[in-house]
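pipeline stage [seq->struct] | target=CHU large protein uncharacterized | organism=Kordia algicida OT-1 | residues=608
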Amino acid sequence: MIKNYFLLVALLISSLSFGQVLEENFDYGMTNGDLTAASGGAWSQHSGSASPVQYVATPSLTMAGYPSSGVGGHASVSGTSQDVNRSFTAISSGTIYGSALVNLSSVGSGNYFLHFNISGGFTTRVGARDDGSGGVQFGVGTSSSTLTYGTTSYALNTTYLLVFSYEVTTGVSNLHVLTAVTPTEPAMPEATNTGTTGRTISAIAIRQSSNIPAFLIDGIRVAESWNEIMNNSTVPSVSIVTPADGATFDPGTNSVDVTFTTQNIDLMMAGNQVNVTVDANPTDADVTSPYTVPTMDGATYNVTVELLEGGMVVDTKMVSFSIANITQVNNLTELRNGTLGEFYELTGEAVISYIVTEGTRNQKYIQDADAGILIDDVAGTLSAPLNIGDGIIGLQGQLSQFSGVLQFVPTANVPGASSTGNTLTPIFVSAGTLAANGETYESRLITLLPVTFDGADAGGMFADNTNYTVTENGGSETTVCRVSFGDEDIIGSTIPAMPANITGLGGEFNGTYQILPRYASDIDTTLSTEEFGTSSFSMYPNPANGNTVTITSATNNTKDVQVYSIIGKQVINTTITRTLDVSGLQSGVYVVKITENGKSATKKLVIK
C-alpha cells in the first residue's frame, strides 16, 4: 500500500500543469542590440521591421522581493515599428497571469504596448496614457484596442510592477499596478475589461506604434497563479530558451542549438537528468545545454526535452522548428512574384541604382531590365564593398514587405560586384501612370514627366521626410513626390515654381505610389523650360493617327530625336528636320526627347 501511495504521488507530479510558464530576465550577455538577434531567436518579430526593440545588457530593473528583480539587463522600447513576441507552452484554461517591471520615460495620448498573443490575434492589452498633468494612467483592453484606464496617476521615470491576467471562462482581463510585491492578489484591480472567452494564450508580446510610451521593461513572468508570479516555484521544471517554437531558420543552416534551463533540481544527483528526443530518433539521455540538432534545408524538426527526477519524468517541453528551402529565380520580376517570408536566390544580375547612406538599415535599391526591389540589410550581411552602378549576382535572402514596399533581406554575403560602372536609364512615367500603376515602377529609377508643385510649396525649401503633391503639367493627374534621403543635397534646395521633370526611385506607402528624388539635380527644370519657353518645340498631330509626326521649332534646324516606350525602351533614334516617321510604332504612349542646338526637351506622344 505504501508503494502504491508513492507511485500515485509520482504520477500526480508528472501530470501537473506547473504554475510558472515563462521567466524572461533579458540575460543575453554583454552585447547590446536588436533583441531578436541578441536572444538567439527566443524573441521573434511578428510585425514591422524598422526600429527594433533593443536589448541592453545592463542595468536590470529592480523591485525588492520580486523574484525576477536585478537579473541580467533589460529591453528598451522607443520606436514605432517592430513588434516582437516570445512564445511558451499554450494555456487554454484557468487564469493566465503575466507580469513585468516597467519604467516609462515619456507617454502620449495613449496606446497599448504589452499583451498576450492568441492564435490570429491579441488579448489582455496593457497600455498607458498621459493623465493630462504630466503623470501616467495605466489601462487594459481585451481583443479590442480600446482600453479601460484606471484613475490613479503614476510618475514617469519610476519602476512599477504591472501584473495582468486573462480568465479563460469569463474573458475578463485585469491589471494591477504595484509599487511593492504583494503576496496575495488585491481585491480591486487598477483597471478591468471583458472580452472574448475561451482564448488559448501562447506568447507574450512587446508592441511599438504611435503614442506608445518610451519605456524600459524587465522581469517578465507568465504563470497560472498569482503566487507563481510573486514567488519562484519549488517544483522541478525545464524550460526551452531557444529556438522559439515555430521558428524558421535560413537555408544553409547546418545545425541548431536547443538551449534549455532547469529549475529546482540538482542534476548532479543520480537519476536526475535531461533527455532529448528529435522526431522519431532514439532518445539521447543525460544531455547538457545546448543540445545540437544537425539540420538540412527544407526539413522540420520536433524536439522533446524531458526532465527526470529520480529516474521519473517530472516535466516535458517541446519545440518545433524548420529550415527553409531556397528557390532560385532568374530575375527581379520572378522575385517580386514570390511569396512573402520565403527564401530566394537571384541567379541573374541586378544593378545597384542607389545606396541609402543614412540610418542603420544598409538599404540598397537594385534593378534589372524589367523590375526593381529594395534590399533591407539591418544585419549588415552584405559586407563586401558595393557602389552605385555595381552589378550583383547570386544574391540570397528572404522576401518581406514594409508599408506595401517589397523588400529583400539578405541571408548571405556576396563575393563583391559582378560588374562595375553600369549606367541605368530612367523610365519615363507620367503622374497619372505612376499613381495608377505604381507597382510596376516600385524601386526602379524613373523620370516623372513635367509636373508642377503646389503653389503653397513652390519657392520654399525641400525638407526631409516630407510629401509634396505634384500635378502633371497641363493636366489634372497628381502623384506624390516624397523627400526621404535626409543626408543628400536635395534637403534645403529650392522647390521650383516652374514645371520640372523629377528623377528618382519609385516608392509606395500603403498603396499610395510616390517618386523619391535623391539629389537636388533630380529636380530638373531645364527640359521643361525649353519646352515651354520662347524657343519651344511643337509636335503635331498629337495624338497621331497616321505614319508621320511634324516637329517644328523657331529655328527649324536639324534635330536629334529619341523615342522611348513607357517602360523606357528606346524604339527610335534618328535625326530629322521636320518630319518624324512613326509608322513602326504600335498604339500607346511614348516619350519623345528632342535636341536642337544643344537644347533639349521632352514631350509625350500618343499613337492611336
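stage status: PASS
auto-comment: The longest helix spans residues 2-15. Confidence is low (pLDDT under 50) at residues 1-18, 528-535.
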